[in-house]
Write a structure and sequence with these properties.
- The structure is a single chain.
- The chain has helices at 19-30, 65-78, 139-142, 158-167, 187-195, 289-310, and strands spanning 9-15, 35-38, 52-53, 63-64, 82-84, 88-93, 97-101, 105-113, 117-119, 135-136, 150-154, 173-177, 199-202, 205-211, 218-223, 229-233, 236-239, 243-245, 275-277.
- It has two domains: 9-118 and 243-310, FAD/NAD(P)-binding domain; 121-239, FAD/NAD(P)-binding domain (3-Layer(bba) Sandwich), CATH 3.50.50.60.
- Strands 1, 2, 5, 6, 7, 8 and 19 form a seven-stranded mixed β-sheet that branches.
- The protein contains six helices and 19 strands.
- It is of the alpha/beta class.
- The structure holds NADP nicotinamide-adenine-dinucleotide phosphate.
- Residues 53, 55, 122, 154-160, 162, 179-180, 184, 206, 240-243, 287-289 line the site of NADP nicotinamide-adenine-dinucleotide phosphate.
Length: 312
């Protein structure tokens, strides 16, 4: 539908093409909403950085992430959802929504923000300087570079444990460094971690500095029990210590929590009428692919209901 100035007026613009955005697009397409999906990179979001997903219902033994995302993509293509590879940089609201990207300005009656999150940094000396020279936030991308090498993994959640196990395919030894004495990761992953002979765990420890000239050569670690520092030789440091939301472009428009996650109710409604949020960018208890998909479905359902109720 074109507005009076000949500009396409979408029923819905979805910002972000990870599992939440792809599911929202699926539900929006089935409700026959005129929908545009904006994704700044390739479809899939940050989960595409994980080789496989083991806890998506219906796939005993797990499913390769790429396969799952391609299947989701095919579903939205079949519904004729328009996808643009552009980054939303600003949203304004004035009787309707305007979404600016670097290339264009789009207009819609409702918005679903499913812009996801990106990995947190340790923010220690050497980290920035040695990114892509042994410092990594993606095992699938960089693991094969460290065949036969000793590497460190930082973190104690699902991601760090999954990746530590995955990285033993390549590395001769993986040292998992965690700041407490118990892991946050699910028990089934912990069992596999403890069984893996290639993995050593350093408990109650945090990295202080990553050293190296052109490539990572070692890591300075502090033992949190006695404050002693120790040097550890390694060729890579993989960091998985949680996520930051991609919500900079929403500041001042909707309510965010102290870390920038979007605040919503159970209908995925934000503080701004007509703008919904789904997936890792919103404040929630469990950030998983399956919950992102659930958020996306709910957000699209409620966006459609909003359009009907407002007679838009
Ligand atoms: P997470 O569950 O938030 O765990 C972060 C870990 O890093 C925690 O163990 C935390 O320690 C530690 N940590 C945080 N800040 C640190 C710092 N400055 N220095 C040292 N350690 C620090 O995050 P994640 O494991 O990276 O996973 C990111 C998100 O992806 C999570 O929401 C997770 O649920 C999700 N995920 C989903 C799937 C899936 O859908 N299949 C798979 C993997 C991950 P404490 O325990 O002491 O706080």
């Amino acid at each position: 539908m074109l507005n009076s100035k000949g500009i396409t007026m979408y029923d819905l613009i979805i910002i972000g093409g990870g599992p939440a955005g792809l599911t929202a697009a699926l539900y929006a397409g089935r409700s026959r909403l005129k929908t545009l999906l904006l994704e700044k990179m390739s479809l899939g979001g940050q989960i595409i950085l994980s080789p496989a997903i083991e806890n998506f219902p219906g796939f005993a033994g797990g499913i390769e992430t790429g396969r799952l995302i391609l299947a989701m993509q095919k579903q939205i293509e079949e519904l004729g959802i328009e996808v643009k590879t552009e980054e939303a940089t600003k949203i304004t609201y004035d009787s309707g929504f305007k979404v600016d990207t670097r290339e264009s300005r789009e207009q819609a009656k409702t918005i679903i923000v499913s812009s996801g999150a990106f990995p947190k940094k340790l923010n220690i000396p050497g980290e920035d300087k040695l990114i892509a020279k042994g410092v990594s936030y993606c095992g699938t991308c960089d693991g094969p570079l460290f065949k036969g090498k000793e590497i460190a993994v930082v973190g104690g959640g699902d991601k760090a444990v999954e990746e530590a196990i995955y990285l033993t395919r390549f590395a001769s030894k993986v040292t998992l460094i965690h700041r407490r004495e118990s892991l946050r990761a699910s028990k089934i992953l912990q069992e596999r971690l403890f069984e893996n002979k290639k993995i050593e765990i350093l408990w109650s420890a945090i990295p202080q500095e990553i050293s190296g000239g052109n490539f990572v050569e070692g890591l300075k670690i502090k033992n949190l029990k006695d404050n002693r520092l120790k040097e550890m030789a390694c060729s890579a440091v993989f960091i998985f210590i949680g996520i930051h939301p991609h919500t900079e472009f929403l500041k001042g428009l909707v309510k965010l929590d102290g870390q920038g996650f979007i605040l919503t109710n159970e209908n995925m409604e934000t503080s701004l009428d007509g703008l919904f949020a789904a997936g890792d960018c919103r404040k929630k208890t469990l950030a998983q692919v399956i919950t992102a998909c659930g958020d996306g479905a709910t957000a699209a359902f409620c966006a459609n209901r909003y359009l009907e109720m407002k007679g838009l």
